[in-house]
Amino acid sequence: MRYSTDPMKERPVTPGDRPRTRPTRPRNGPGIRGREGVAGWLFAAPVVVILGLFLLAPILLALWVSLSDWNGSGSPLASGVHFVGGRNYAALLTRDGLARDDFMVSLRNNFYYVLLVVPLQTVLALGLALALHRRRLAGRNFFRTAYYFPSVTSSVAISVVFLFLFSSSGTINALLRLVGVHGPSWFADPRGILQLLLFQLGLADPAHPPAMLAGHHVFGLSVWDWLSGPSVAMCSIVFLVVWTSAGGYMLMFLAALQNLPVSVQEAAVVDGATPSQRLRRVTLPMIRPTVFLVLTIGLIGTWQVFDQIYVMSQGNPGKTTLTPAYLSYTTSFTSQQWGRGTAIAFILFLVIVVFTVIQRWVLRERDGRRRWSRRPTA
Amino acid sequence: MRISVSRTLGVLTAVAALATTAACGSGFDNNSATPQKTGKAHLNVLVATSGTADLDAVRQAAAKWAASTGSTATVSPAQDMNQQLTQGFASGKPPDVFMVDATQFEAYAKAGDLEPYGQTLSYRDDLYPTLRQSFTLDGTLYCAPKDFSTLALEINNAAWQKAGLTDADVPTTWDQLETVARKLTTGKQVGLALGDTRDRIGAFMVQAGGWVTSDDQRTATADTPANLEALQFVQKLLAEGVAKYPKQLDSGWSGEAFGKGRAAMAIEGNWLRGAMKTDYPDISYRVVPLPSGPKSQGTLSFTQCWGVAAKSQFKQQAIDLVNSFMTPEQQMVFADAFGVMPSRMSVRAEYQQKFPQDAAFLDGADYARGPVTAPTMNAVLADFDTGLQGLPQADPEQILRRLQKHTADALQH
């Protein structure tokens, strides 16, 4: 992933850049700047070719596969592969059947997953960064490394360790037993936590869900199922992912914090701002670009969750850890329905775009707050 | 001026990118037959292994063949069989010989990836009919089933005696199974550990005379009274608490619960032998055939075949290699090395003599049912598994209705 903004935009604009605005004399040849465009393209050519070959071409090919009946044998562009229009998309979105049920279940699961992971990991990362940013913390380097460690360790290795920790006779449950709690069998528990909560409050019984919710179906899934919340198994995965990724985002926050000018903080202190005011009114607005970055990367990454599911649960128990990325994989490689598998990937792409746009809109700079977020010029 | 140059270049790049892709495509057009090479071959063999024992055995067999023919054969273990095979098929350079699971066979056969060499085999009629059936599509046998396993009932001897049961009590009917399971259920141990998927519970459906599809796998036959009877029986065992799913016993699979003494009986296949030998060598147990249901005896068989790629340059040599794996002597070597049952009937007597304790597994070959091979059924059966996991609370009728609907839908496409 590339996080950097377009370097062209940041180039300082000088009058010399705009030759056409200058009074011109009649020209015969291309002039001193006439060949700049060609030269620019020539310099960019290697990257354009590499991106085209390894990014654009595969995406176009996948788009074609999602519109075709390719069966996994030979090239998708061979003569035996036919255009089937939106049939693969229809099976996932409009036609009542197992494919749509599974896809909707996977969207539901992933939505709850995103809803939990993104805020938790962002808050945790920010908290860690703020703690490490304090000047007089002993062993700062040690903590910095320790927190960052999970991010650079293989997610597969971590997943396997967590499988042991969360097994029903594992360490987590042994710890819970010490305080008298009988822990669930984490990765084998398909019950949704919202449903469990309603049950605990005496509002609804999972065995006999309220007819109002169970009777209404949206996209093939009953409202009761949509509102189930993440399952206990999914929560275990959420826990793992938050723990793993927070360190990496912490580093971004830390870099942003260390870039802040000390003078502004001192000015706030002189003005009599309390620590919490300084955090909310000075620090946070100043690192807004980093917050946006972390949220965006987090959002994209969590919608694409695959490794942990593949290693730990394969969508079980009861399909409650099925995610679109994993469903796309099994639809393609196990069920050999390549068109449908790639169609899932493209719908997922749209979902991510929509959510990112929404997030951008929510975090946009409003007029009232603008003065807080503008970076002071040194 | 500038704009037009950049546009031209952009268009040129796009055209170049598309041309490259198209060129890749035309190179592997499905219609072109792969030219065959005769004489010494270099074969790539891709195998799905569960450990070093089976990999080593195949490597040795391949080396033997290579030495006698002067060709070479490289045997490599697959990390993710489906994915690696697909990469091979899509690029037009698949491994020459590979293992194909019965559940995946039909997809590859329909896509034209498999060489249908099964028809020409001299020992074709020597293969168990149920295994042949698993690799037959539209009347054509595509590949040679390399070996197979079946489900049987394993009984912990110590628990059996402790409950005061004798040889005469070995269950041969569902009622008897329920009775002994009840007797074997104590505070710490449950009577029967039963895997929560169609690959175990399906055996009860076969015993009741039902199955998910018709024999030719064209029609859905899920919501029949026979299947319902089977699920209701399983539901009853679970509700009574005399049978439990492995996860309820804090185990990954029935074998673990059985080995750890959390269950006195288990329904598993030949692979249990190896696991017991390495993980729980002190447990004494016996293997008996699954009890008959209301209709007949029934069990499930699991098998893989030696696929030969239609795109291989050395098809003849590849088939020759498979034939060397399929000789009666080599089949016994494999059986010895990693506990699978030979797929050739002529080796049956020899196998029985050598492994008398596995008679129950072997007998299953006569009444076993192979897995559903239609690739679109994978998601449907996974959904069925999810339904089964909801037992005993879930309603069997509803599970089967759902299965019927999805199966009918999947078989149409």
Can you describe this structure?
The complex is a heterodimer of chains A (378) and B (413). Chain A is mainly alpha-helical and 378 residues long. Chain A has helices at residues 7-10, 36-66, 87-93, 98-133, 140-152, 155-165, 171-178, 193-200, 211-214, 223-226, 232-259, 262-270, 275-286, 288-303, 307-313, 324-333, 338-362, 370-373, and strands spanning 217-218, 221-222. In chain A, strands 1-2 form a two-stranded antiparallel ribbon. In chain A, α5 (140-152) crosses α11. Chain B has helices at 2-27, 52-69, 81-91, 102-110, 129-134, 157-162, 174-184, 198-207, 225-240, 254-259, 271-279, 315-326, 328-338, 348-354, 359-363, 377-389, 396-412, and strands at residues 42-47, 72-77, 97-101, 136-137, 140-141, 144-156, 190-193, 243-244, 263-269, 285-288, 299-308, 341-342, 368-369. In chain B, α2 (52-69) links the parallel β1 and β2 (72-77). Chain B contains 17 helices and 13 strands. Helix content of chain B is 47%, strand content 16%. Chain B has 413 residues and is of the alpha/beta class. Residues 22-31 of chain B have low confidence and may be disordered. Chains A and B meet through α2, α4 and α16 of A and α1, α3, α4, α16 and α17 of B.
